[in-house]
Amino acid sequence: MSATASAMSALWISFKVAGCATALVFLPGLALGLLLSRRNFRGKGALETLIALPLVLPPTAIGYLLLRLLARGGPFDPRRFGFDLDILFTWKGAVLAASVMSLPLVARAARVAFDQVDPRLEQMARTLGQKPWQSFVSVTLPLARRGLVAAAVLGWARAVGEFGATVIVAGNIPGQTQTLALGIFGALQIGRDEEALWLVGLSIALAFSAMWGVESLLRRGRVGP
Amino acid sequence: MSLRFDIDLAVPLHGFVLAVSWATDAEALGIFGPSGSGKTTTLEAIAGLRPKSTGRISIAGRVWLDTAAKIALPPESRGVGYVPQDLLLFPHLRVRGHLDAGVRRVESDPARALDPARVIEVLDLAPLLDRDVASLSGGEQRRVALARALCSAPEFLLLDEPLAGLDDALRRRILGYLLRVREEFRLPTLLVTHDPFEIQALCDESILLDRGRVIARGSSAEVLRAPGCGGFPATESLENLLRGRVVTVDEATAEIAIDDWIRVLVPRSGLAPGEQALIGLRATDLIVAVGSPAGLSAQNVVPATLVAVDETGTITARIGSRSEVITAAVTARACAALGLAPGQSVHLVFKTSACRVIPAGRPREPRP
After folding, report:
1. What distances in angstroms separate CA B103 from CA A138, B60, B131, B186, one per listed residue?
2. B233 φ, ψ to 5°?
3. d(CA A107, CA A110)
4. Residues of B in contact with A123 (CB under 8 A)
5. By the CB < 8 Å criterion, does A79 face chain B?
6. Counting Cβ atoms within 10 Å, is residue B165 exposed (0-12), middle (13-18) or buried (19+)?
7. Which of B40, B250, B294, B329 could disulfide-link B283, Cβ–Cβ 3.0 to 4.6 Å?
8. Is A22 helix (H, G, I), strand (E, B) or coil?
């Protein structure tokens, strides 16, 4: 494969993996953020700590844990449950690794976003006749909007940059699981400096355009009633 | 026929339990009391925002809360129009969005619901409809919060300190709007305030609350003069309220008949003949004269009979043939020097400029 072709394939895989991971993690992260922001329950502290773990542990540790859990004969081996998802050492494995690593960031950012909405505004909407889900849609979501977009961006960014867990769960297979992050490492190891530079350039372009897009989306002002 | 308002509430608070029991058929109710006495909590409990409240709430025969029968309607099913002290306007909505936020109106009986167009007219909101709420002045924001509550088709209006924190001119204007809303929509209302003038101007029946207990109940004027809680309200802050009808006006002043034969000269303040007006008069602005004073620049000298005199100089008097009383604060020394005693006939003297006037619209037609 030529340097350009493998770079473009890494770009595409990065895009696919980060996009899928963000999509997979956004709603659960939002739900977790809402739960932590609005409810008090037993074990809340434990849940918070558990969710924060992937932020603190070395990514390779998380990767290894995932590998052991999902490996043939492991406790979460999909074959145990009667189907073969073919996760390990495929792009799906990369998605899983990126998802686990970005969920805590999404949940935390979503929690902050919900914390910034005064619950009394939701109560006010209730006195106006809105059911809880209606006040969530009409008050909470629009007011938390910026923070929730930021949560998605943060999760996506974490997924794009993910290396340690991915390399263990999905390997570093060019054209299949080799993302930009893995590609740079791979190219350096075999001394292909030019290719590494190409990949770095692509990463910068990807990051720049994504951030630019989000900023202009947020700048476009309010969402009408 | 069930009462308009029938509550028997208990809400645990820090340090005490709020216990309010109150059944009445009056239309405009007031809760009066010092801060921290449980006024706002009572409103929130009625609105359904205090899950720990127990007891019974029945509004116009509909039960909103009955702990014994395990009934506790959620806020959205209660039908209150709630205007909290901090308004809680939605920062992401324009004024128009606030008026549409009441989903109950859409779902409810169109005959009972208020016409939003009428609300917009009464509160002069037409020029503001497309404005951001953050760009509105304090007075405008209050009107929007009031309009939002009215547009949600409420059965009961809850107002928390609607005039607190406004300067005098703005207070007058907002009070004018509240009086208009009252005339126009005739919604049962419960108002919370620590301001003596507000409660007299807006409420027919009131309670005085202290540390969660009802310590007086009656007409607003009676409650104000009930033996208060720790000197609340202070006599110095007491503002008397007189109601009357404008008889004549000239450029600077208006003459208001507060009785068949007693007229008071007040600043004109935009009054028109035939209009009803409220006159606010501070207890400390009243001079008590024994005998008939003459040669005064003060334009108002009205005959009164003393009802009660206490040694600190708080004097309660009845003007002419009116049933309600007004309060004057003089020094203990003046009280002793003049030998003031209940039953005595005196004159109350006050300047035109001491009168704070609020137009109260056209005369109220008698209740059916």
Report:
1. 11, 21, 21, 21
2. -75, 145
3. 5
4. 49, 75
5. no
6. exposed
7. B329
8. helix
**What Cα–Cα distance (Å) separates residue B330 from each residue in A166, B57, B223, B293?**
85, 43, 21, 17
What is the Cα–Cα distance from A12 to A24, expressed in whole angstroms? 18
Is residue B250 a contact partner of residue B268, using CB atoms and an 8 Å limit? yes
Q: Tell me how close the Cα of B32 comes to any Cα of chain A, in angstroms.
A: 23
CB atoms within 10 A of CB B247: 13
Is-contact B299 B250, C-beta < 8 A? Answer: no
Chain A residues lying within 8 Å of B84, measured CB to CB:
120, 124
Tokens representing B264? 């008071």
**pLDDT > 60? residue A147:** yes
Q: pLDDT grade, residue B109 (50/70/90)? A: low
- How confident is the model over A191-209, as a mean pLDDT? 91
Q: Is B136 on the interface with A (CB under 8 A)?
A: no
What span, in angstroms and rounded, lies between the C-alpha atoms of B226 and B211?
16
What CA–CA distance (Å, rounded) separates A104 from A45?
14
- Helix (H), strand (E) counts: chain B: 10, 21
Amino acid B105: pLDDT = 56
Asked if A128 lies within 8 A of B91 by C-beta distance, the reply is: no
The strand pairing partners of B309, in sequence order, are B315
Q: Measured between alpha carbons, how far is A23 from A155 in angstroms, rounded to an integer?
A: 10
Average pLDDT over residues A6-25: 94
C-alpha B181/C-alpha B162 separation (Å) is 13
Angle made by CA atoms B346, B350, B351, in degrees to the nearest 5: 155
Give yes or no for residue A64 having a pLDDT over 90.
yes
Q: What is the DSSP pairing of strand B345-350 with strand B300-309?
A: antiparallel
**Residue A124 to residue B93, Cβ atoms within 8 A:** no
The H or E element containing residue B253 is: strand B253-257
List the alpha helices (DSSP H) in chain A: 3-38, 44-56, 59-70, 91-115, 119-127, 132-135, 141-161, 164-169, 180-189, 193-219
Q: Give the number of other Cβ atoms within 10 Å of residue B137's Cβ.
A: 10
pLDDT (mean) for B233-246: 86
ipTM score:
0.85
Amino acid letter, residue B304: A
Which of B76, B130, B151 is the best substitution to test chain A (most A C-beta atoms within 10 A)? B76
- Among the partner-chain residues A131, A138, A143, the one whose CB lies closest to the CB of B91 is A143
Q: How far is CA B177 from CA A68, A168, B336, B355, in A?
A: 71, 70, 44, 20
Under 8 Å between Cβ of B286 and B328: yes
B47–A127 C-beta distance less than 8 A: yes
Q: Any chain A CB within 8 A of the CB of B40?
A: no
pLDDT band at residue B368 using 50, 70 and 90 as cut-offs = very low
Q: How many CB pairs under 8 A join A and B?
A: 65
H-helix or E-strand spanning residue B338 = helix B332-338
Q: At what angle do helices A180-189 and A193-219 cross, to 10 degrees?
A: 160
Which residue of A121, A126, A225 is in closest CB contact with B76? A126
The tens digit of pLDDT for each residue in B50-102 reads 999 999 999 989 999 999 999 999 999 998 999 999 999 999 999 999 999 88
